[in-house]
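Hey, quick one: can you model this chain's 3D structure?
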Amino acid sequence: MKKFLPLVILVLFASSFGLAADLEVEKIEKGSVIIVGIDKPAEFSFIIRNNGITDDFEIYSLVGVSLEPKSLFTIAANSSKELEVIVTPHEETKQNIRGFYTFDYEIKGQKTGFFRDRLTIKIVELKDAIEIVAENIKPGDENVVLNIKNLEKFDFGEVKLDIKSPFFEFSDSISLKSLEQVNVSVAIKEEGIRSLTAGIYSFESMIEFQDIKEKKKGEVNYLEKGGLSVSKETSGLIIRKTISRKTNEGNVLIKAEITERKDMLTRLFTVFSEKPLRSERKGFFVEYSWEKELNPQESLIITSTTNYTFPFILLIIVILITVVVKIYLYTNLVLNKRVSFVKTKGGEFALKVIIQAKVRKPVENVKIIDRLPRMTKLYEKFGTKPDKIDEKTRRIFWHVKKLNAGEQRIFSYIIYSKIKVLGKFELPAAMGTYEKDGKIHRVFSNKTYFVAETSDKAED
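Sure thing. Here's the predicted structure for all 460 residues.
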């Protein structure tokens, strides 16, 4: 019997460690919406039934929120208890989460173990909790109706609104209970809308509650006579797309017309979703028009797409050519550098470098400066002997007192190295300085490359 006693104790210990509390929880929402910036937590009422033994319990969550009460509460065996639960999201949760947020919570019994469940709250910003919709305005209307709706289960109480548009202004405090809608009639500014054409206009609302102020934008539709709404949307830069729409918002048959005007150039790159009923040339422009009899709620939609890709590329080419020509015409001294491979008896790596200097206008005190690449030496028995060699900076200099217009000079030299070169070998650009009208000017040649492959070749 003594042999089996430790085993029995181990089994009893393991089974008690894995026990789960025998609870049933009914969650009643009393306010599950959190408004960002407002210090008001979510509230729930939990009806907890204990189907096990009498025990002391605590409720908590390990992720994203804090739960109250934090103290222990007792539920007798086979009885129920109503518990008011307060949910306070952590600051990080309120900053990063928008919309519904579901998290795990636990009810831990001191004797019976754990009960695990999930709970959902909603985190929204003030401007997303309140919807402001302006009803359509027809010519001749004296008032516009604003539908102000609380979209959330949150009792705001007094909310201050400041709304401005080309048609009306409204500034007042209103009471908004949970999910309540309030309709407000606002007088239209008759003087301000006489010059306005039919279409969609935006308005801006400032919503203020407690210490929070947030802006919210909305739209109001100004109808044509007969109830015809007009809208036009344009998008894209290189490929520009325009959607023109007219919708019969009234209750009678109405004739709608859409016109588009294109100049003689852009019309060549424009396509329409429907063939125009008429096209009329007016000077440098062509005017296209479409017509349709619209039933109630029917729309006439015309899409025009202008592709500026070809003219844009053509414009870039013209600009590049203009810049290159301008640089070419205003440069008095032009340097061109090229390189070629030289075979040697000893097998050393050697290159012949040629710098060609062309002069378009007379210049004085011309200096041609080039730099020897690292690991190379100058073969002084060939080419144009430099006037100066700077061993420290590895630069070589040629000096010419004066060059006349149209004159051309060639400066050449050979460099060599005992190290074999494989792949791409870069030679720096040569520099030239000259004096013109008492000013010193500086120009550079092209960069030159030597590519050592199975066959030796040079690239400029």
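One thing worth noting: The first helix runs from residue 5 to 17.
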